[in-house]
Amino acid sequence: MPPPILVSAEAGVQTVTLNRPERLNAFNAEMHGLLREALERAGDDDSVRAVLLTGAGRGFCAGQDLSEREVRGDEAIDLSVTIETLYNPLVRRMRALPKPIVCAVNGVAAGAGANVALACDLVLAARSASFIQAFARIGLVPDTGGTWFLPRLAGRARALGLALLGDRLGAEDAERWGLIWKAVDDDKLMAEAGALAHGLAQGPTRAYGLIKRALEASATNTLDAQLDLERDLQREVGLGEDYREGVAAFLEKRKPAFKGR
To answer: What is the pLDDT, as a whole number, of residue 71?
Structure first.
């Protein structure tokens, strides 16, 4: 049986592939554990400076594998356990990772799979890909950060439409609505996503991590608090090697050689 997660590393990029193509890469407990382990390794390994997340086969991720649950009409099931132990820690790990995560959505991203994609930093999607907030179709509320991401990315009206109706949203509309960075031709997806991830891996990755932290904090900070945070983070990167290298390269009219420090 092939592993549900494939991990490889090259030139500073850790590529993580969801690998249950026969189930459209739907999540089970083993996949959750291995994905979180891969992200933790990426965070701890200084040689990894960017992460590329994608799916095997014709789909990115169909969300939770419902065949793992025995749901009967006369029995209640407490879904909060799965959310608290698996999905919430995954999203928190992704958002806190001090390195950029590029997501290549190669097919359908449904339910929790759609929201895992939205939790990434730069999302590229094949033109044939689609995003579906499938929760209401089976009587559920969007989770995995969906109710947080959707209104912030697309606005309240579109967020409600996606969540209540569960309609399929194509990649080009997702780009137009601001849900993702870019829709690309199917045959160019992995090349473009790989180039983006490798470009980020050669950049000032320490600054990238602090940019992520600042933008995350801005969702709840007052303007005064955010100005103070920008001051503190700028002090931190200003004392680092990458800033000095960036200025030197600019003045010398050459490409900077950042080290992520």
So the answer is: 58
CB distance 54 to 190 below 8 Å: yes
- Residue 47: CB atoms within 10 Å: 11
Kindly state the tokens that stand for 188: 């160019």
CB count within 10 Å of CB 235 equals 9
* Domain assignment present for 143: yes
Contact 127, 185 (CB under 8 A): yes
Same domain, 76 and 186: yes
149 & 43 share domain:
yes
* CB 56 within 8 Å of CB 18: yes
Q: Which domain holds residue 168?
A: 5-201
One-letter amino acid for residue 124 of the chain: L
The single-letter code of the amino acid at 56 is: A
Alpha-carbon gap, residue 235 to 243, rounded angstroms: 11
CA-to-CA separations, 41 to 24, 36, 97, 209, 233, in angstroms, rounded: 25, 9, 10, 16, 24
Alpha carbon distance 225, 160 (integer Å): 30
**pLDDT, tens digit, 9 for 90 and up, residues 192-211:** 999 999 999 999 999 999 99
Q: Cα separation of 35 and 194, whole Å?
A: 19
Strand partners, 104: 54, 124
Residues 117 and 213 in one domain: no
In a domain, 257, yes or no: no
Stretches in the chain below the pLDDT threshold 50 = none
Are 124 and 29 contained in the same domain?
Answer: yes
Q: Whole-model pTM above 0.90? A: yes
Task: Tell me which residue of 68, 61, 62, 72 sits closest to 82, measured CA to CA.
Answer: 68
Tell me which DSSP letter residue 211 carries: H
139 is a domain residue: yes
Q: How confident is the model at residue 78, as a pLDDT?
A: 87
